[in-house]
Amino acid sequence: MQQTLDIWVCTPEEARTKSTLELLDDLPEESPTETPDFTLGILGSSDATYWNSNTISDIINPIISEIGKMPTSLSVPAKGITSLLIQAWGEKQKICCKTIDSDWIRLGRKARALQDSRIIKDSSHLVFFVGSRSDYYEKIAIREAKKGKTVYTIDGKTRELVEWVL
User: Fold this and answer.
1) Residue 48 covered by a domain
2) Residue 29 covered by a domain
């Protein structure tokens, strides 16, 4: 019984230009270049009487057109009429909505700050509905803009969308 041994011989030029993995036909699979996630976090206080699906679209669509792509996900508080409207908009657009809930009974006043910090941490871009009675969200917007996040605010009275660049 004779055994045959197949030997593959290449020229020195081929050996220099090909890597070992190429010679063994064992190249790693090329991974597609990953685009960074675009998670839109939406926070703030708002007077829900004038918010509807059209006004939500009027706010989010200019942000999307400026950035040039649809968000991969939305982070919103679990409670509130505005959050429900944003979730409904996201579902129509087939965008994953992450609702961030907080334990108000156990945490008390700290619940809002913890909920907001989770949304801020998970988001690459932020939209704040700034209230007229408090500057809480305006201060957070300034802080996050200084850290380099893309931040937008919506004034509760004028409904004007403003991008913060610091």
Assistant:
1) yes
2) no
